[in-house]
Amino acid sequence: MSESFVIIGDGIAGSSAAETLREEAPDADITVITDEGEALYNRILIKEFAKGKLPEAPISIHDDGWYEERNIDLELNTLVVDIRVDEHEVETHEGDVLGYDKLLLAVGGTPQQLPVEGSDADGVHHFWTFQDARRIRESAESAEEAVIVGAGLLGIDLAAICGAQDIAGKYLMRGNSWWRYALNEEGAEIMHEAMRERGVEPVFDSGVDHFETDEDGHVTAAVDPNGDRYEADFAGVAIGLNLNTELVEDTPIETDDGIVVDQYMQTIDEDVFAAGDITRFHDVILGEQAQNGAWGSAKEQGTIAAKNMLEYGAAEFRWVSSYSITHFDFPFLSFGHPTLGDDEVMRSFGDDEWRRLALKDGKIVGGVLIGNLAPQSAYKQLMREQVDVSGQKDILMTEGFSVDDLGVEDAAAE
Ligand SMILES: Cc1cc2nc3c(=O)[nH]c(=O)nc-3n(C[C@H](O)[C@H](O)[C@H](O)COP(=O)(O)OP(=O)(O)OC[C@H]3O[C@@H](n4cnc5c(N)ncnc54)[C@H](O)[C@@H]3O)c2cc1C
C-alpha cells in the first residue's frame, strides 16, 4: 500500500512540502488541508495589493489545477480541530477523520489582538491573509486618518499602506523608535523620516489605551496611555503572532511558543513533523533553538520536512533567513536573528545609510542593513560558516567590506 501524507496548512511551508513529496514519492497519497478559501498565494505581496499597487491575479501562486495535475488532494475551507497521534488520524470541523502515516503541521500563526476596549471595532484591522488585505484595501480607500500600532516589520507595512492610500497616519509606538530591538535610534531615524515623507507621523512613548467608536461600531479614534487622542477612521494593528499550537495541546508533542522540532523538522513524535513560522527549530548555525518568521525560511523548512518525512536524516535545515522592506526608495534588509546575541557592532554612513551586526560568542548571528545592501552576502557567508570575527569588529564596518578583508587566521571557519 502507498504511504499517506497529511499536511495541515497550504501556506508556503505546507505547499512546498507537498510539491517535494510528490516529486520524490510519485505513488504517495498526499492531502493538503487549509481553513482558507483559496490555494497558496504570495503572502509577501498582499501588502502591495492592499496599497492598491497590484491586482489580485499575480498574488495567486497555485490554482486548483496545480493540485489536480500532481494528484494532490486539496481540501479548502477545512479546519483541522483535532489530532490523535496514537491513532494516526486528524479530524476536521465537519467531523471527517483522515488517517496518515506521516503528518506535517504547517499551521503558522494568527495575529494578536490588542487587549484593549474597541480593538474588535469595525475599521480596526489585523493583517495576515489575502482576505484581510481585501478588507484593508477597501477600508483604506475611503479613509482619511489612521493610526498604526506595532513597531515592527508588519506594522511598517500597514504604515506604507496608509502612505500609498493617501491617508494621514499616526504611527503609535511604545518606545522612542521603530523596531528598537534590532535598530538604534540613528538607524530607526532613517525609517522614521521615510514614513514622514509618506504622510505617516511616528509618535513615540505612546500606544493604545482604547479605541473610540461611533454608534455603528466603527472606529473613530485611538486614545493612548498618556490620554492623547488621535482621530482615525482606519486602524492597523500588528503587535505579533499567536502561533497556532493549540492543535497539539492534547498530544505529547512539545511546544514552547511554537512546535519544537529538530534540524530535520521532526517533533518528538517520529511520524509528526512541522515546518514554517510555527516551528521552534534547532538552529544548527546558532547552536540553539530559534524561530524564523520569513517566507524563504518557511519554504525551505517545507522542503526539508518533506525529505525527512520520506527518509529521516536525509536533509538538515541550515539557513540564514532574510527579510526585506521595499516600500521606500532605499533598500532595507534584516537577516539571521538581529534581536539575539551578546554583542553588537554598528555604524552610520551619512544620513541615509546604516548597518548593525548582532554577535554571539564572537560570531555573527544576524544583522540589519539600511541604504546599502552590498555587504549582505559577505555577512551571511560569515554567519553561515560560523566564522569567529571577534577582535575584527572595525573591519566588519568598513564601507566596502568583503570577507577577504578579515585576518586569515581569525576568518578560518570552525
Ligand atoms: C502582510 C505580510 C507581509 C509579509 N512580508 C514578508 C516579507 O516581506 N518577507 C518575508 O520573508 N516574510 C514576510 N512575511 C512573513 C511570511 O509571509 C511568513 O513567514 C510565511 O508566509 C509563513 O509561511 P507558513 O507556511 O509557515 O505559514 P502561513 O503562511 O501562515 O500558513 C499557515 C496556513 O495554515 C492554515 N491553518 C492554520 N491552522 C489550521 C488548521 N487547524 N486547519 C487548517 N488550516 C490551518 C492557515 O490558515 C494558513 O493558511 C509577511 C507576512 C505578512 C502577513
From TrEMBL:
<feature type="domain" description="FAD/NAD(P)-binding">
    <location>
        <begin position="5"/>
        <end position="284"/>
    </location>
</feature>
<protein>
    <submittedName>
        <fullName>Pyridine nucleotide-disulphide oxidoreductase</fullName>
    </submittedName>
</protein>
<dbReference type="Pfam" id="PF07992">
    <property type="entry name" value="Pyr_redox_2"/>
</dbReference>
<keyword id="KW-0274">FAD</keyword>
<dbReference type="InterPro" id="IPR050260">
    <property type="entry name" value="FAD-bd_OxRdtase"/>
</dbReference>
<dbReference type="InterPro" id="IPR036188">
    <property type="entry name" value="FAD/NAD-bd_sf"/>
</dbReference>
<dbReference type="InterPro" id="IPR016156">
    <property type="entry name" value="FAD/NAD-linked_Rdtase_dimer_sf"/>
</dbReference>
<dbReference type="InterPro" id="IPR023753">
    <property type="entry name" value="FAD/NAD-binding_dom"/>
</dbReference>
<dbReference type="GO" id="GO:0016491">
    <property type="term" value="F:oxidoreductase activity"/>
</dbReference>
<keyword id="KW-0285">Flavoprotein</keyword>
